Amino acid sequence: MRKLEQGRISILKYLIFIQTIFFQMINQIFLKLTGYQLIFLIGVTNLFFSCQGSDSSYENTSNSRAGFVSLQGDSFMLDNNYFYPITVNYLVSLLANEHEVWTVSSVSYYQDNKPRHAEKDSGLAQLAYEMELIKDMGFNSVRFVGVGEVKPHNGSADLLSIHAFDGNDRDTTLVLSDSIAYARYMHALNELVKIAGDAGLKVVLLTRVNPDTLSTERHLQKLATSLKDNAALMAYDLFNEPLYFDPNQRLKSDVSSFTKRWDDIVNRYAPHHLTTIGLTGMREVFIWDPNVLQVDFISFHPYEYEPDQVRNEIFWYHTYVSKPWIIGETAIPADGDSVSYDLQTAFAAKTMKQSWDCYASGYSWWQYQDVKWPKFHSSYMGVVNRKGTTVTSKGNLVSGTVKPLVSEFQNFVPATERDSCKCFSNYYNYSESPGYRLTGKIINGNGSPIEGAVILAWSTDWLQSNHTVSKPDGSFELKADFWLNHWIASATNYTMIREYIHPDKIARVVNGDSIVNIGVITIEKLKLAN
User: Fold this and answer.
1) 3-state secondary structure string, 329-347?
2) pLDDT tens digit string along 466-493?
3) Cβ contacts of 40 within 8 Å, gap of 6 or more
């Protein structure tokens, strides 16, 4: 088995705590004992703690394969030790010629947006140097993005492909049309994961399994089979941000069903690897409800569009998500000029602390290096900028200069005690926008109020949206500076409902705000097949 039932970890943690205190108490006794007295006491101690594992209902982690990350309750374990992933997202590009396929650091990390190394050996060496730097910066894991996300080729339901570059830096497509093409592609992925592992990093590999294309499930089987013995691989990220990249309207029961199918594939063909799905945040609850996803853990991607939005979202995860979860992406941009590096450092510090205090199982930053994309917000989130060079601890040269926020990753110690998980004053409405308000109450089929339900509303043209959560009595008040015309509501483990507000609907005006009350909304408890 690669995971325990939820709740077992609390027992294990308690036993570890008792064991620690016990050893501290007898440490002084050990110093005074010699010969047969010491041998006898050690034997009794070992017997006592070996009895803790006599209950066959608990997984003995020593039976797990060495070097693989496992999940016990809400905690990751590595070789019987607690493992808290501190991860950086890293973009990867593929290069291909008529003979082979290999990986290089993303073209987005280079000034001219072209691969820096056209030759395989130099490209892989540069990857290795950047993995060294990632380890130097305090990360113990990396999420590879861009190299595992296949898609149907030219609309075909059976043929898959992935974007690549040829030896002349030109865009091309690697079509996985036969066993030779597949073998070359899988070899490239194995090389990539091994390079990260050699640097002391664990890997989350972003893939793309399409719920409507069974060939992507067959691809997942091939991928899992190829990488099953690679202990550097921690988990497959099976789908990225469905709120943005899954345009189809689905039932939660269907999402539960096909994610279970995906997890079963990995469990069967790569039993020592884990599964996750990256969700944008609480707004995914309407369809890709985190508690119905049949994966080992959830990866959330909250970003700071409003004051303290990320920390407030983290509070919601802690309160309402029953599965293990990590922060799979977060960041704010900083170029050291228009936005100071101090602000970026402070954001990393406070969100890492909130994640730890709210019992996240790990934390990830987006991304490795600044890029040159159309918008400032997405261009300057890297932990390395595009200026100058940096020498790794092993003396290798890497392009770019490390930003100050890496000190937060280097100095973070997850073994410290947790403070309370904070809920901030703007939890229900991040921006307190004036002008319009949508009010109502969420109840279940028994008439009881639902706390923590999510209500999202859009403008008439669907271009703007705000969301909020219901209070303990089920009531909500969603504020915006635009007319709220379309709305949707759900809670985790409940059905979803959506409706339209006619512009002519009569609104009360209070202190200059137009208020529309949509009344009592009833949603039903989900009934999912086991």
Assistant:
1) CCCCCCCCCCCCHHHHHHH
2) 999 999 999 999 999 998 999 999 999 9
3) none
Average pLDDT of the chain to the nearest whole number? 88
The contacts of residue 281 (CB under 8 Å, 6+ apart) are: 300, 301, 302, 313
* Tokens at 461, concatenated: 């043209």
State how far the alpha carbon of 462 is from the alpha carbons of 389, 483, 518, 521, in Å. 44, 11, 19, 22
Alpha-carbon distances of 334 from 384, 399, 412, rounded to whole Å: 11, 18, 21
- Report the distance separating Cα 187 and Cα 312, nearest Å: 42
β 454-458/465-469 pair status? antiparallel
Query: Which token pair is 225?
Result: 């089979």
d(CA 188, CA 265): 22
Amino acid identity of residue 183, one-letter, is A
Are 305 and 276 within 8 A, CB to CB? no
DSSP assignment of 153-171, as one string? Answer: GGG-SS-EEEEEE-TTS-E
Closest among 524, 484, 514 to 500, alpha carbons compared? 484
Contacts of 251 (CB under 8 A, 6+ apart): 287
Strands 141-145 vs 202-206: parallel, antiparallel or unpaired: parallel
Which pLDDT band, with edges at 50, 70 and 90, does 78 fall under?
very high
299 residue type, one letter: S
276 Cβ partners below 8 Å, 6+ apart?
204, 235, 236, 237, 238, 295, 296, 297, 298, 299, 326, 328
Print the SS3 string covering 235-294.
EEEEEECHHHHCCCCCCHHHHHHHHHHHHHHHHHHCCCCEEEEEECCHHHHHCCCCCCCC
* 367 preceded by a cis bond (ω within 30 of 0): yes
Helix, strand or coil, per DSSP, at residue 301: coil
Give the Cα separation of 481 and 484 in Å (integer): 9
3-state secondary structure at position 52: helix
Neighbours of 24 (CB within 10 A): 9
CA angle (497, 301, 127) in 5-degree steps: 145
Residue pair 178/161 in contact by the 8 Å Cβ criterion: no
pTM for the whole structure: 0.87
The residues, ordered by sequence, that sit 6+ positions from 525 with a Cβ below 8 Å of its Cβ are: 444, 445, 493, 494, 495
Instruction: With residue 203 as reference, give the H or E element that holds it.
Output: strand 202-206
Helices (H), 394-454: 406-411
Question: Cα dihedral sign for 334, 411, 366, 286?
Answer: negative
3-class DSSP assignment, residue 88: strand
Residue 283 pLDDT > 90, yes or no? yes
